[in-house]
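Posted in: Structural Biology > Protein-Ligand Complexes

Title: Requesting predicted complex, zinc ion in pocket

I'd be grateful if someone could produce the 3D structure tokens for the following input. Sequence and ligand are given below.
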Amino acid sequence: MHSHLHGEIIQRLIKEFQFVEQGEYLRKGICPYCKKRELFTSIEKPYVLRCGRENKCGSEVIVKAHYDDLFSHWSERYLPTTKQPHAAAEAYLREGRGLDMALIAGCYTQESYHQKGLGTGRCVFPCPAAHTGSA
Ligand SMILES: [Zn+2]
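-- Reply #1 --
Done. Output follows.
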């Protein structure tokens, strides 16, 4: 995880759980279950928040689920522009999946479709790895 999304997650975590940065970790966060300042997570990979009171609490907070809004609604957060018509698809792939865009640039398009009146976006990969030529 890196870049823009990562910074936003760290900021939110510090604000919400009152974490203190210590080396490579966020520590002393307030556990939402036992209310003790035992919550910690890795700064580099803030995927799961864990309560340090393993035997008495041991709760976990899945960051991706907790900040669901950060990981969804890509189409709304990254509106397509003339320069970047696939902004939302790129953002999703780059930040949601951590793919190196250089490797797959040009291999996808962003399509919109409507379902029950709600517009949304999805990523489409039109070029398969294997080009099946007639033998
Ligand atoms: Zn706890």
